[in-house]
Amino acid sequence: MAKKIVIIGGVAAGPKSACRVKRLLPDAEVTIIDQDSLISYGGCGIPYYVSGDVSDEKELRNTSFHMTRDESFFQNAKGVNVRSNTRALAIDRKAKTVEVEDVRSGAKDTVPYDQLVLATGSRPNILPIPGVDLDGVFTISDLHKAIAIKERVARGEVGKTVVIGGGAIGIEMAEAFTDLWGLETTILEFMPQLLPRLVDRPFAKMLETHLVEKGVAVYTSESATAIEGDNGKVVRVVTPKRTLEADLVVMAVGVRARSELAREAGLAVSQMGNIMVNDRLQTSDPNIYAAGDCIEVKNLITGKGGIAPLGSLANREGRVVGDNLAGIPTTYKGWVGSFVMKAFERSIAATGISLETALAEGFDAAAVTTAQSDRAHFFPTQTVIPLRLVFDKSSRRVLGAQGFGPANDAVLARIDAAAGIIAKGGTIDDISQLEMAYAPPFATALDALNAAGNVADNLASGRLRYISIEDFLAWMDNFAGHPDWVALDIRHPKETAPFVEKFGDRWLSVPYIDIRDRYRELPKDKTMLIICDAGTRSYEIQVFLDSVGFANSLVLGGGFNIMRRLGVSWWPEA
Amino acid sequence: MAKKIVIIGGVAAGPKSACRVKRLLPDAEVTIIDQDSLISYGGCGIPYYVSGDVSDEKELRNTSFHMTRDESFFQNAKGVNVRSNTRALAIDRKAKTVEVEDVRSGAKDTVPYDQLVLATGSRPNILPIPGVDLDGVFTISDLHKAIAIKERVARGEVGKTVVIGGGAIGIEMAEAFTDLWGLETTILEFMPQLLPRLVDRPFAKMLETHLVEKGVAVYTSESATAIEGDNGKVVRVVTPKRTLEADLVVMAVGVRARSELAREAGLAVSQMGNIMVNDRLQTSDPNIYAAGDCIEVKNLITGKGGIAPLGSLANREGRVVGDNLAGIPTTYKGWVGSFVMKAFERSIAATGISLETALAEGFDAAAVTTAQSDRAHFFPTQTVIPLRLVFDKSSRRVLGAQGFGPANDAVLARIDAAAGIIAKGGTIDDISQLEMAYAPPFATALDALNAAGNVADNLASGRLRYISIEDFLAWMDNFAGHPDWVALDIRHPKETAPFVEKFGDRWLSVPYIDIRDRYRELPKDKTMLIICDAGTRSYEIQVFLDSVGFANSLVLGGGFNIMRRLGVSWWPEA
Prior knowledge:
With about 575 residues, chain A is an alpha/beta fold. Helix content of chain A is about 30%, strand content about 25%.
């Protein structure tokens, strides 16, 4: 008799494991069960469907060769049975059956399995505030919601939107509303920054500044306390600080695993509700596997488990399940946390953990921030790409990398390269010597990522003394906090003049090229914060000043290339 | 007394080691000696200067903050002495001095050193053919040559150019001549492909096809046998097959180390003339270091030494020398061979070694070729990026990666990510599970590089049977070579019809979606070459056919996405 494999869940991990095992065991009887009528769609494409970049929702369900991944496609092309509109109600592990219900007719039956895969995904969190059920309040949980949102917008029913949640999905939806549809859009994020936990504050702030430039209102450290309506339809969102009119509200405040079936079947589930699996993605019942948003995944840097709700991981995990169903002992050890997103004309990406997370996790962590060019400085399309490396000072292990740049693949290239090193437990030196491909249209001779490794080496080796971006910003807002600090601005006098004029004796200007002649003018009784555009010249000057007995300086990493992307209020008028 | 460090060579490795050691040992007396008047320029930018992308040669000598890296810059900003126009004649290792000559006045003196660095670079090879000294025949050896070429072109003196050598520099120069100046340009390459040794034939052929589309004439397997002139000025280039008119000839046929100084000083030099160094980049005299094009560098995959003439490596090596001069025991273990170039609207990149090299080196090597999208298939700017992974079948170690795509950073991102894995001796599985950052504007959920890893896994595990691109092309040119072969084209009938019409009973058409119903029509007495667009559907069909007793198929990796980029003569008319 053919082996019966049943897979609950028809998006990403489910279809991937189904198709993989069917290729490995062509004689197996493979069935996907999903309660939805639409299956196997690219959920990550929803913002691009709403924006209009993708014109038809079918494109999200198509293969690269333009066939729609529906029930008959799976049957004919893959030899996989799909029972859509079919809800799994319960698992009988002893009998090895799944009780299911047709969501249209209500008819029930039982489906036997030899091996079962839970790819039940996640559901969006709903804030415990009034008004979440009003018409016009959406989560981005499935394609039906996306279609409903786009129809409303396309019918001209929406003028103002509020996006609750400043994570990737919230920001992508805000871009879709603003950029293509010209809607007045506000993002509310209850944490003090966008993309909390994914990147550190300065990188989130660079992104926020760009969003604001593009017309999106962003309020951080501000939560929605109520959503109010009129005749059952949303009209405004209330926060402790303001009331925002809204015809449409998107709530994108994270997701949690769908694991009721697993829990009710007595499978091990974490306190947060994630299905526990071993590194072959077996649950506590060896005949039941799980993959995708619903499982607990170990972070390879912190060693801690949690939800890892990314389509890219769901696909990798699905393949691992397919292998194991067929007896190939492939393992999945965990995730690094690689991430990229586009927002208008910028990209932001990260891998590993942020400095904030690293410190919270007890690492002896530090970070360097650089602002080198993505291409040869003489190549016409070159631009600065701020990068951050997070590392452990004692072991020199690299813990994370972050990047911000134009909406092309420049930042992606550096983050993908770093991801491999980080996953392997690599050090600062591995980053310094990583052999990035070079030609002037693509990189600098010493790539921006290598340069970040070199700066990290200088910091970790005690050759570079740093002031953090946060400390510098705090001082700029309140000189009295550190009355003994003074800026030493080594940029060209034309660049420094407005700062000297505005900040008076807090701002010394001695050009880089003149320091060796003029260092005796500098104060010995102050801490000098050395400022240039990228941080590299500042380091040279610090080393020189140390050698002539002025060991009282700190370098601002990334320099004013970072500052001018932060939208600071103290920037002098041009 | 201050330690005296003397560096011979003022481009890339020389200035890098000088500035690094000066930062580490601010009290050291650091002197760069160079016979040229122009130093510290970005030599890799020469084609972009000639093309006009870079308007002034000074930009190639500028820092990112727009200062020219001349003698006074090094003195004032870096505290490094530069003696330009000064030729090093000999090294007296006992006395620890360098004898130098002012190239303008002829005056000689000796420069004492405590430690010496040889960064003497390379010189271009000159073919042993008549006419290489004619006016108008150039090598791309320094900035003066670049200026002279650009002046000639800008004055309108050049209508036709011949580039001898189909390596990266030759191709970049051909683009510069054709694209901006509209010159009639021919590339001659004596090997059977462009970019010999850097990429395998199919990838070189995709590039060649694009160059031809852009109006460059390319003749491979064809060498220049003579350059002929008129009144001392070049007028034509002769090959065994044709005579090419030319007002300007660029000879870009590789470089060799400049190591006379080292050899005459009794330092160990390889048979090929490369200066031998240990992994701290010390020569056979511990007081003398060497870096850049002039040294022997170990290839980390083959373990063999050779010249590695890349500006990116010169900079890395320069930093290692700077560290060691200052007593920091940084090492440089060797190179992987990462490489990228732009040619018109395409990029081509590679890391590690090619299949051809791997086989020649005795590896149990194989390669897979894929043709996946760079972005989500529904994202408007997506395009196919052919990738190749070269690996060892028994150890599963990845030996190399190649990519071809648009002139953005999409290919770069995959090659840089692979470079780190390859340098660390990683396997196919490391590539499969490499956590590439994902969002639809940047990648597919399972990245193209991961997909290549998966295909390699299938091949290495014996689950996939492949026909090589070369074997397929040979068969298309001569069906009689394998009378028992037949194409099984599973693309849409609209796509396959012209092929069926042209190739008759050599070309079977059964759509992918119909195979499960119609497989009984297929022949059991032929070898079926399964063809789709990317190779993935073909693999599915092979697995299915095997399971129903038709184990007589081979998959064409990368499918017609590769074929249509190869400019084949047998493509049916549209």
